[in-house]
């Protein structure tokens, strides 16, 4: 374990803190005499880094230590693990969010291409351009207060939209997929806010994203 400065990948494919919480390590002299016992007393994940609080022979060591620093402290002498502690799962990682949303976008692009292919040869796109050509006159009629003309155009537009709807249903195409409608207005379905933070939509899907990434790791392990 010593010298490996990376997250711990569990048998379930999920990521955990490298050092287990409340694990104890007994350092020894080369002659095998016990020297110190270190305990991991707390672990937290801040700014993409695993940070640990330790105690030495029961007395707290000041300041949080990085994974590399814990490696150094424990690696200075030979040591045995005397208490295995408990594995603590890492919070949602940026790379997990990125991968999940990238794959989701790929799926959506594929579905969008399939939807377009299904509509090829139908009247759908012809109707779309007819609807588009009627929209400016409708806006104009409304702005002039020409209610009669506006109502007339609305009837036409509704009829065209209904025809479009029928076509979508007959070929089994979802309008949201076709129009690439985004479900999150904050991140536009990329998983990150414009400021670069993990979006609340991703936080709300933490378990799903964790599971997705764990399955990918397990699949990679088998390959
Ligand atoms: Zn979002």
Give an overview of the whole structure:
The structure is a single chain. This protein is of the alpha+beta class and 223 residues long. It folds into three domains: 76 residues, Roll (SH3 type barrels); 68 residues, no CATH class; 58 residues, no CATH class. It contains seven helices and eight strands. The strands form two sheets. Strands 3, 4, 5, 6, 7 and 8 form a six-stranded antiparallel sheet that branches. Strands 1-2 form a two-stranded antiparallel ribbon. Helix 3 runs antiparallel to helix 4. The radius of gyration is 29 Å and the shape is elongated. The two termini are 24 Å apart. The model has no long low-confidence stretch (mean pLDDT 93). The protein binds zinc ion (ZN). Zinc ion binds next to loops. The site of zinc ion (ZN) has 5 residues, from loops.
Structural category is alpha+beta
Fraction in helix: 40-55%
The end-to-end span amounts to 24 Å
Strand and helix order = EEEEEEEHEHHHHHH
Do you know the CATH architecture of the largest domain?
Roll
What value does the Rg take, in angstroms? Answer: 29 Å
Broad CATH class of the largest domain: Mainly Beta
**Small molecules (ligands, ions, cofactors) in the structure:** zinc ion
What is the strand tally?
8
CATH topology of the largest domain: SH3 type barrels
Largest sheet: 6 strands, antiparallel
Q: What characteristics describe this protein?
A:
alpha+beta; binds zinc ion; 7 helices; 48% helix; 6-stranded antiparallel beta sheet; 223 residues; 3 domains; elongated; two-stranded antiparallel sheet; SH3 type barrels; single chain
């Amino acid at each position: 374990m010593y010298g490996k400065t990376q997250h711990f990948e569990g048998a379930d494919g999920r990521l955990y803190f490298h050092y287990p919480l409340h694990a104890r390590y007994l350092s020894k002299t080369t002659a095998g005499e016990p020297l110190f016992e270190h305990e991991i007393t707390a672990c937290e994940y801040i700014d993409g880094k695993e940070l640990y609080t330790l105690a030495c022979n029961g007395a707290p060591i000041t300041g949080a230590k990085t994974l590399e620093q814990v490696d150094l402290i424990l690696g200075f002498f030979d040591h045995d693990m005397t208490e295995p502690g408990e594995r603590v799962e890492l919070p949602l990682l940026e790379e997990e969010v990125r991968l999940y949303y990238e794959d989701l976008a790929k799926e959506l692009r594929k579905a969008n291409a399939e939807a377009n292919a299904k509509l090829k040869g139908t009247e759908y796109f012809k109707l779309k351009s007819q609807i588009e050509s009627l929209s400016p006159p409708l806006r104009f009629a409304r702005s002039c207060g020409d209610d009669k003309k506006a109502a007339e155009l609305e009837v036409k537009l509704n009829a065209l939209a209904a025809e479009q709807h029928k076509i979508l249903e007959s070929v089994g195409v979802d309008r949201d997929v076709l129009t690439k409608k985004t479900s999150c207005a904050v991140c536009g379905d990329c998983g990150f806010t414009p400021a670069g933070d993990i979006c609340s939509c991703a936080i709300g899907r933490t378990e799903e994203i964790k599971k997705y990434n764990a399955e990918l790791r397990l699949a990679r392990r088998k390959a």
